[in-house]
Amino acid sequence: MNNLIRHITSFIFISLSLSAYPISYSFRGLSETNGLSDLTVSALYKDSVGYLWIGTATSVECFDGFRFKHYPIFGDDEKLKWVNVIAETQGNQILVGNDMGLWRINKESGKLEPFVAEVIKFGVRSLLTDAQGTLYIGSEKGLFVCKNNELEQITINADMWSSDNFIVDLNMGEKDTLWILTRSKLYSMNLSTRKITLCPCGDNDRQDYTYRKMARIGSRLYLGTMEHGVVVYDIPTGKFRDNWIDLGCNVISSLSGDGKDILYVGTDGNGVHFVSVKENKVMKSFRYEPGTNGGIRSNSVYSLLVDREGLIWVGFYQLGLDYTLYQSGLFSTYSYSPYFDSKDIPVRAIAINENERLIGSRNGLFYVDETKRRFRSFKSPQLRSNMIMCIYPFQGKYYIGTYGGGMYILDSSTLTIHDFEPSETPFVKGHVFCIKSDNDGCLWIATSMGLYQYKDGEQLNHYTSSNSKLLEGNVLDICFDSTGKGWICTATGLCIWDPSTRSIKSDVFPEGFIHKEKIRTVYEDSSHELYFLPDKGPIFISDLSMTHFRRFQPGTLLEGKDAMFMIEDREGWLWIGTNQGLYRYDKKSTIVPYTFVDGLPSSVFITCFPVIDASGTIWFGNSKGLIYLTRDLRDINEENSYPLAITDVYVNGKEPYHPAIQSEQHLYKVSLESSHKNLTICFSGFTYSDPVYMSYEYKMEGMDDDWQLLGGKSELTYYDLSSGKYQFKIRRIGEPGSEICLSVTIASSFNATLWGTILLLIAIICLSYAYYWRKKNSPALAADAIETGKPVVEEKYRKSNVSMEECHRLANELDMLMQEKRLYVNPDLKIADLASVLNVSPYTLSYVFNQFLNKNYYDYLNDYRIAEFKRLLNEDEYSKYTLSALAELCGFSSRTSFFRYFKKTTGITPNEYVQSIGRTNED
């Protein structure tokens, strides 16, 4: 326990010192292929909702982890569009400063709008808000203070055009002080009196210094320059310090800090550096180094952000953006610095107690005693085989089984290892798969040459297929249940050691049991249910008497995966390691997946039985290290930094339908017209990791009977929705409290007033006609109705007088228009436009599509667009085009509608189709 506390304390200290960096420094790049419209990234900001705002040379981009929204900057002078700064004010209002002035984001219109343009008509380089909501604007013509919707201008020099008024950065200090950095000087301003004081440079006049950025940690200001690296200003003494630290480049493009110790420095030439101001040294650097993996893509860094989750965002000149993939740190990979690091080691066996760690791998055996600070590794030639298959602590010793090298005993007090039984062949040259003990204190050893039973160092029995009912083949495991029975897993099936008769039985299994399959292991939970983990196929579950048994239910996250091990935690949930991930199961219906996002180094688990230590921490062997849970799972829901959010609603494949979206207490509402029947719902959890690891469950009430699983996607599409009300719900798997709801109302096409008037007129006409008919005709008319035999058509077309010949003619003309003039490449083509070309009414053309061609207008156009896409793929001149670019050339209005319709019509994704025909176009 003391060891665990020490480890946690060390982890917390490191986390606080390095601003809670993510566990992994795996970078993901964003560029045009991901939707970034401009590759020069000059400003970065993450808002309180969770969106990342990206300033470029020509636009502002909003990124939610999956999709980009574009806010282009319009103007004649391209140089002035460059975004200098992005900030957030109260109410999640996003402000943008560039050399044209100050702008704000209008999320409903999707546009940038000028903000106080009548006053601020020049460049804005810095934006700062305080706790009271006051906005400080650093511009080329001085400081502006916006408070309670009133704007105050403060100039440092009375001459508006003086360089003294060219403010490049602002920083809020202590004791009612605002620090102001201009291109060449540093000032302080008393916020109460508005008095501005120059910070004198002393002997150095600093005429050749061009300041760019500023950060404050404690009583020091750190000033980034264009020529002299980082300059330090000590606030108490009022002294500057040059040549503070060598970063390999003196051009500082970005500067910020954690407020405690770490300074984040971006350079235009030598990458990114994290500097400890307490130790005055670089703690971590990220550079582009040719021939190596894992670094950033360029050393020309134009912007840098370390957000509150510890993710690192790096903006480049003409290369887009890199960011570290988020990991929650729920799991950590074990290391004991500087002696041992289990990273990338395939762990096959473990033994964990209060102080000692014993790790078996394909590369030998490793022993760690953190209390006594001891470490030892055991490998060939000390071992006959480096592949450790099992480790079992028994009576103060560790028993070690290997593959091909027999069995050993490790004495941890002396750190010596010796043979278990050198006279027995399997314990010298054979395979030892499992070592267990029973309630009588006997040691059982599963080997390639049968099953052994020892007690007090003496061999009691050696069971083989020739002297007992033991099945042939390797004995893989023996598991003792709460009744004392030993379930023996072999390569050819299952048998049982019966303690009452002290014999092995293989003919006691009922019909339909799993005894004829190869079983890896058997696990008994606290409810005394047995879980059989077969080599292939679903888990098998039985009671102790084998009276009631079943296969694990299909259609879950475990389907198609091979279970490698199982262990029950203190909350009664089962942890199941598979060849494709780690899962936690509540034994009812909830299965929670754990992935890279949670800190797993790999989704591949091998047969390594987990251990729960005295503190309740669970340790797992993974194909890339020894991992352990770092904290209580009950705290996980509270640790999600941002709630799920509905980010967009697309209607009929068109642009996002913003105006009707409202959010209150995780409830969203959208009201749509009766023609809006195809709905694409986009959402995000703002977990910036590889999208393939995102897992959710959703339900559309009235359409889905139960929660549906969704992985690797952040949008769902529903087609042909009828008028009415719908409730779309989505949440993180295993986190009911994360649920959000979108209430959708689709208006009815029925207009009560209009139809009431029409029906009244029809009723008057019918009554008048009936009266006239009764007077004119004999009352002896036949009462039987004559069946007409007319074909059934949709209600709205019942009175159409379009003939079949007319339908044939219009269909042929349509095909000729599409083939000769390629009208489908126009994404804004409306049915009214097409009807005008054909010189018919939109109603008539709609009839042709729906009643003659049996498809709607959009499907008709999209079929031609898909065909055009396939044609372009085969043209060499389009081989370098991205899939999104090709889709745009074919007339699709968005990437989403293209991917959705392609999958709908072909059954595969565009990427899969490209691969199937041997092309190299990428998305």
Molecular structure report:
The protein is mainly beta and 923 residues long. Helix content is 14%, strand content 38%. It contains 10 helices and 67 strands. It has a 6-stranded mixed β-sheet with strand order 60-61-67-66-63-64, with no helix packed on it. Strands 1-28-27-26 form a 4-stranded antiparallel β-sheet, with no helix packed on it. A 4-stranded antiparallel β-sheet has the order 2-3-4-5, with no helix packed on it. A hairpin with a 2-residue loop joins strand 53 and strand 54. Helix 4 crosses helix 6 and helix 5 crosses helix 6. The radius of gyration is 36 Å and the shape is flat. The protein starts with a helix and ends in a 7-residue tail after the last helix. The N terminus is likely disordered.
- Give Rg in angstroms: 36 Å
Count of extended strands: 67
Strand order of the largest sheet: 60-61-67-66-63-64
Task: State the major sheet.
Answer: 6 strands, mixed
Silhouette: flat
Query: What structural category do the secondary elements indicate?
Result: mainly beta
* N-to-C span: 51 Å
- Beta-strand residue percentage: 35-45%
Helix content percent band: 10-25%
Mean pLDDT: 87
List the total number of helices.
Answer: 10
Note poorly predicted spans: 1-23, 778-793
